[in-house]
Amino acid sequence: MYPRLLKPPTTSFFLFGPRGTGKTTWIREHFSIAKTFDLLDERLYQKFLADAALFARELLPLRRGSWVVIDEIQRLPSLLNEVHRAIENQGLRFALTGSSARKLRRGGVNLLSGRAVRRLMFPFTPEELGDDFRLDRALSIGTLPVVWTHDDPADALEAYVQMYLREEIQAEALVRNLPGFARFLPVAALFHGQQLNVSTLARDAGVSRTTVNGYVEILEDTLVANRLHAFEGKLRVREKRHPKLYWIDPGLVRTLKHHRGPVSHEEKGPLLEGFVFMLLRAVEPRARAWDEIYYWSPGEAKLTEVDFLVVRGTEKMAIEVKSATRPKEEHFRGLRAIGDLKGLKRRLLVYLGDAVLRTEDGIDAWPFETFAEKLANGKL
Fold first, then answer.
1. How far is it, in rounded angstroms, from Cα 308 to Cα 273?
2. pTM of model > 0.90
3. Is 139 exposed, middle or buried (0-12, 13-18, 19+ CB in 10 A)?
4. Strands 357-358 and 364-367: what pairing?
5. Model confidence at 237, in pLDDT bands (50, 70, 90)?
6. Using an 8 Å Cβ cutoff, are 296 and 306 in contact?
7. Rounded distance, CA 206 to CA 185, Å?
8. Would you tell me which CATH number, out of the four given (3.40.30, 3.40.1350, 1.10.10, 3.40.50), belongs to the domain 289-376?
9. What is the per-residue pLDDT across 239-266, written as a single tens digit (0 to 9) for each?
10. HEC profile for the chain?
């Protein structure tokens, strides 16, 4: 078992993350003596669905300060009213896990009014995998715990996609047209690391633009993908950039595109870029390292971009990711173009070579391994 870096809060909390990221395993490790309710247990789910008061009665014998775990809380958001009362009246503490915040966010339910902090569980990071981490394997099959530890990762990824459609989408009735959503997924995987072109996505998936926008929201709500917005600065409205789409795991992207085996040269760049984005997001809740992440593209230069612009208060850091083993002059184009941005403290190229370099105009170039180590140690 690989130790996770997420530390358990001392107060009530929500723990969200895609299925297969190890939320239940982590909860069992840290809250083994807690009173536990697994809402994937259909019998239990139906019982509390019929009468939420039965849930409240099971809490009454617990001592003040006791921990209570509710797994997959999004299945019965109505229980949060009883959770709220138990926190206020009995002094109980709750660990509330879920793979989707959609019903909680959209249903107007009680989100405990700040009485529960929010934590996210991500796929394995290089720091968590330690000596077992191999970048080529991570880009090929991803680092979802349910896949990384499986004897046949390719079959596990295929099963994961089917489980996502069956248990997350169909069972929770998140879409009316499941075949349309299934057609949408591999097309959306083609946009990994690219600006979202809703018209193209809608045409290729055979659904409307409005439907595509709803489907992208579902990807975000079920935590398998994220939109990365452009840093707008003083851009005029007509110059505003479309967001980019990043899936949370390289293996998931490749499976949706029906790619198996070694990663091709064409795949490597977007997969590495997406993996770096996942690592930037994974470290933030633990280290409170930054406030926002954007990509940067000036309005007057459509072909000039920087993959990530990390904002910490008034300071900024620009990060460009390349799958090359040797930096080339053109790899620094975006980092040079962003050089005059107010508050910019560091410009960094992450690449697949083995030498730590620095250009005459102050741009750092780090091998991926150096970047991952410094990120984990809070030294970016």
1. 9
2. yes
3. buried
4. antiparallel
5. very low
6. yes
7. 12
8. 3.40.1350
9. 468 899 999 999 999 999 999 999 999 9
10. CCCCCCCCCCCCEEEECCCCCCHHHHHHHHCCCCEEEECCCHHHHHHHHHCCHHHHHHHCCCCCCCEEEEECHHHCCCHHHHHHHHHHHHCCEEEEEECCCHHHHHCCCCCHHHCCEEEECCCCCHHHHHHHCCHHHHHHHCCCHHHHCCCCHHHHHHHHHHHHHHHHHHCCCCCCCHHHHHHHHHHHHCCECEECCHHHHHHHHCCCHHHHHHHHHHHHHCCCEEEECECCCCCCHHHCCCCEEEECCHHHHHHHCCCCCCCCHHHHHHHHHHHHHHHHHHHHHHHCCCCEEEEECCCCCCCCCEEEEEEECCEEEEEEECCCCCCCHHHHHHHHHCCCCCCEEEEEEEECCCCCEECCCCCEEEEHHHHHHHHHCCCC
Q: What is the pLDDT of residues 107-126, one digit of tens each?
A: 545 566 677 888 999 999 99
Tokens read off for 333: 């184009």
Q: Looking at this protein, which amino acid is placed at residue 279?
A: L
Give how far Cα 47 sits from Cα of 103, 107, 154, 264, 375, Å. Answer: 19, 21, 37, 50, 46
Q: For residues 235 and 298, what is the distance between their CA atoms, to the nearest angstrom?
A: 8
Residue among 148, 140, 359 at smallest CA distance from 254: 140
Least confident of 128-142, 166-180, 240-254, 269-283: 166-180
In the chain, CATH 3.40.50.300 sits at: 13-120
Crossing angle of helices 198-205 and 209-221, in 10° steps, is: 100
- Give the residue-averaged pLDDT of 182-204: 93
Q: Measure the CA–CA gap between 25 and 156, rounded to whole angstroms.
A: 18
Q: What is the C-alpha separation between 377 and 77, in angstroms, rounded?
A: 37
pLDDT higher than 90, residue 286: no
Topology annotation, domain 13-120:
Rossmann fold (3.40.50)
The 10s digit of each residue's pLDDT in 23-68 is 999 999 999 999 999 999 999 999 999 999 999 999 999 999 999 9
Query: Which residues make up the CATH 3.40.1350 domain(s) of the chain?
Result: 289-376
